[in-house]
Amino acid sequence: MTGCYALLHMVNIDEMKERLTAELALVERELKTVGRQNPDNPADWQPTPPVEDSAATEDDEVADKIEDFEQNTAILKQLEIQHTEITKALERIEKGTYGVCEVSGEAIEEDRLEANPSARTCKAHMGEESALNN
Ligand SMILES: [Zn+2]
Q: Rounded distance, CA 4 to CA 25, Å?
């Protein structure tokens, strides 16, 4: 038991872990629809390249494919961010630092964690969350 956990009697860590694990599986499933995992680095996802189709000689067909690829790239980027956040939240559970604000070191409010299980800051420091690195 760390000092931090004494503040967290309100949050059910096991339940959060379950939710995060389920969310991670969901994000991974979605990632596979727009990209593929780099075999040399499982943390790295690459957008699926547009299918080479010799029949697609019409300009608008080519434009469609490029548009699809750009859309996939944007979706993949978002999913990758979610994937990283969830993975890091699970790591914090393992390390015993889950639910502690990374700015102030105080316990993160229960309802904030309920709404966003991978939250890294308390409500007072929400605005600073995106500026945190790692
Ligand atoms: Zn804080």
A: 28
Domain ranges of the chain: 3-48+58-126
Q: What is the DSSP letter of 44?
A: E
Measured in Å, residue 106 CA sits from the centre of ligand 1 at 6
- Pairwise CA distance, residues 58 & 104, whole Å: 57
Tokens of 49: 């390249």
CATH class of 3-48+58-126: mainly alpha
Q: Does 32 have pLDDT greater than 80?
A: yes
Q: How far is the CA of 120 from the centre of ligand 1 (A)?
A: 9
Closest CA to 31 of 85, 70, 81: 81
Q: What pTM, to 2 d.p., does this model score?
A: 0.78
Q: Which amino acid is at 121?
A: T
Supply 107's token pair.
């316990």
Answer for the pair 11, 117: CB distance below 8 angstroms, yes or no.
no
Distance 23 CA to ligand 1 centre (A): 24
